Amino acid sequence: MAHKPLCHVFTDDPNISIPNLIATLSVIPLEQHGITRNRISPCACKIISNLQQAGYLAFVVGGAVRDLLLGLEPKDYDVATNATPEEVRILFRRSRIIGRRFRLVHVMCGKETVEVSTFRGNLPVDKKNTIKEDADEHGRLLSDNIFGSQEEDAMRRDFTVNALFYNPASEEILDYLNGFNDIKARQLRIIGDPLQRYREDPVRMLRAVRFVVTLDIKMDADTVAPICNLAPLLQNVPSSRLFDEILKLLLSGHALTCMLDLYAHGLHHDLLPTLDLLMQQTSGGHFITLVLKNTDDRVKQNKSVSPGFLFAALLWHEVLKIWNSRQTMGEKSIPALHKAMSDVLIAQNKKLTIPRRYNAIMQEIWVMQPRFLLRKGRRPFRLIEHPRFRAAYDFMLLRCESGEIDKSLSQWWETFLNANFKEQEAMLLEDIGTKKQRKIVSTVK
């Protein structure tokens, strides 16, 4: 996998072959695809059965079908139907209509929530074959609530592998765009004109990276070609959507590879410019690599991962750089750290806004870092009592492991935490003085 920036490979007008997109229905029987109805979520089957009994078309669609064909266990199930959101809402008591840009229905079934969407239709275009309404000046769709046929719905989806419809009743897959063969070939192919489809929703570029990495498939040439040139369009996407998609990448179990691919396609500049450090042989690059590997290990072991911890790590060396710069100019350490934190968060929120609930965790982790240097008197005991101590401690261990600060600090704390009270008291008495400790400062290498 190439991790060098790829943007220079393409010109401002990439030579992309735009296929004459024609949907042709293929019915894939059970004998060919191998997905029996008992592998489908009982809740999804029940919802589909109720819709079909009421006279509507209804199918499992999208990622669940794709994942089952790839031998993976779907995380959730989506249903597509020709019933409108209001008609779905009437059929299911425990349901609610959500969304403005893309109206759909959440149907609650036990502890499970199944997303039910109405078939989307073709968007209206003008004489120049461009979208007439509900799009901004860059072509990004502001709403997509035009309903249509199942065939039109398939063509409105992002990639062919996500445009497959599974009918539990007949155990058949309906394939309009050769998505079944693309899955067998492990190929990710965008539906329609790549330039137009990415402009309609720039988040598709991030989704493409995630699918390639997590599903172990490859983008075809036309799908990958315009990504670098269109990366700046991410600036026009609501920050909440961007944050959700970045979080999916980070919590995918393949965070390191996903971040390297973001860098390779030039998608990181307007999201997390600090990822430039990944490609540098410095303590900063080593630190981010360690954090992402650690995250992947935790996800694969089904352990919890704190988004606040993750973003604190991704932005730490920006904080550290400004913190050291302010101290060099004569500012006192702690006020300089608080100003550095503020500067970094303000700059980051202009690109990718991090929710406030995570900002608080990040700042607590950062503020506690200099306190690990103060190992005299009652300070270590007070630090241990802090509710965020464990996260800050793990953060400090990674800083030591990356070479940012001396490993003797982590060794001291590991010994201290495993000692009994008398041994801890003895360590404090034997420790170096506070003034001398404060000379042990972090540096960006």
Description of the molecule:
There is one protein chain. This protein is α+β, with helices and mostly antiparallel strands. The protein has 3 domains: 1-15 and 195-271, Orthogonal Bundle (cca-adding enzyme, domain 2); 26-175, 2-Layer Sandwich (Beta Polymerase, domain 2), CATH 3.30.460.10; 307-437, cca-adding enzyme, domain 2. 47% of the residues lie in helices and 9% in strands. It has 21 helices and 10 strands. It has an 8-stranded mixed β-sheet. Strands 9-10 form a two-stranded parallel ribbon. A hairpin with a 4-residue loop joins β7 and β8 (172-175). α8 packs across α12 (255-264), α14 (307-328) packs across α15 (333-349) and α14 packs across α16. The longest helix has 22 residues, at 307-328. Residues 8-18, 126-132 and 431-445 have low confidence and may be disordered.
Largest sheet: 8 strands, mixed
Question: How many H/I helical runs?
Answer: 21
- Number of self-contained structural domains: 3
β-strand percent reads 5-15%
- Estimated helix fraction: 40-55%
Query: How would you state the average pLDDT, rounded?
Result: 87
Give the distance, in angstroms, between the N- and C-terminal Cα atoms: 27 Å
Q: Which spans have pLDDT < 50 for at least 5 consecutive residues? A: 8-18, 126-132, 431-445
C-alpha Rg, in Å? 26 Å
CATH class of the largest domain: Alpha Beta
Category by helix and strand content: alpha+beta
**CATH homologous superfamily of the largest domain?**
Beta Polymerase, domain 2
The total of beta strands comes to 10
CATH architecture of the largest domain: 2-Layer Sandwich
Shape: elongated
